[in-house]
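Objective 1b. Sequence-to-structure analysis of Hydroxyneurosporene synthase.
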Amino acid sequence: MNITTDSLQEAWHRLEEPGSYEWWYFDAEDEAQGISVVFIWFAGFAFSPYYLGHYEEWKARRRSDQPNPVDYAGFSFQLYRNGREVINFIKEGGRELFASEDGGIGVRFEGNRFVYDPLRNEYRLSIDFSFPARDRSVHASFTFRPLHRFDYHLDNALHESVDFRHHWVLSVPKAEVLGVLDITSLSSDERQVLHFRGRGYHDHNLGTVPMYESIDRWYWGRFFSDRYDLIYYVVFLRGRASSPQAVMMLLDHESGEQSVFDSVRVRENDFRRGLFAPVHASSLRLEDGTVSVDIRHHEVLDTGPFYLRYGSRFSMAIGDDRLEDVRGISEFLNPEALKSGVMRFFTASRVWRDGQRSVMYTLYNFFKHQIDWFTRKKF
């Protein structure tokens, strides 16, 4: 695994290897209103049952046409309020729906676009999609203004016998986020508008083979506090018995000092699983020198056969200082489930493939829409 904080690496890499992928991730939280949002653009949708099915058939020589990542582009948008899902939209489609910023940083999928403006040092997000299965349309505009950046690089290509087929680009560890979100019912024209003010995060990931061929499991998370901000990233590489690759990035607001810890010892505790959730540690302990961090995965925000997103609680000891019970966000990914045809069948219930009819998608969203109506869940 390679790591960089070079924002120039955010440009689309135009990967063409079968199974390769890129995604651009933004999340933000408005704590005062209890609202959080997640935006992700994909070129080679790494979690697509359609992409991975094509890849497996091609690899087994049941298809002669090798899959091209750009034919499986996509966009996802999640909205949570007070820890509960309000909208979970995922759509993918062919190359005609995807475009990259010519000569700059930014991509588009249908009417959903982000672009980086280097003169203003800000990312502008423009969202425009309809979600007929859940009777919604969403229009939004957001700006992410970086509050600081790290300067760190880890290039495993310099080390022998190390698999570096996954790359993490940490561009914006913390941002000021402003936005306007407009949600309308397609059937009744009922409209709700929110003015958003909060803090956010942005990174970029890419790889040259399907994730389940290089990664065994993966933990990521972050918290922002008055004194410290922390980001952690832990990847257990497939086929390696050694310790995981793990890094913690810490900002001390009092001193202004930035620290990167890349000899992190990781301990997984309290393993659990759900009916469709992968086996995962519900708590982690990370240690490096005088810094130790305990993470407890608290409230489940999103769950799937290979993925979990949590509202977490962090406690940290750094020298003689202690920080207790700070709220943050964590994620867990086990790509192994992506190999399962059964799990891909269930994953297809969450993904709207352009031009593809899916009984699972129709049924899943029908029942979710009925629950929304029954509970009168509004934004």
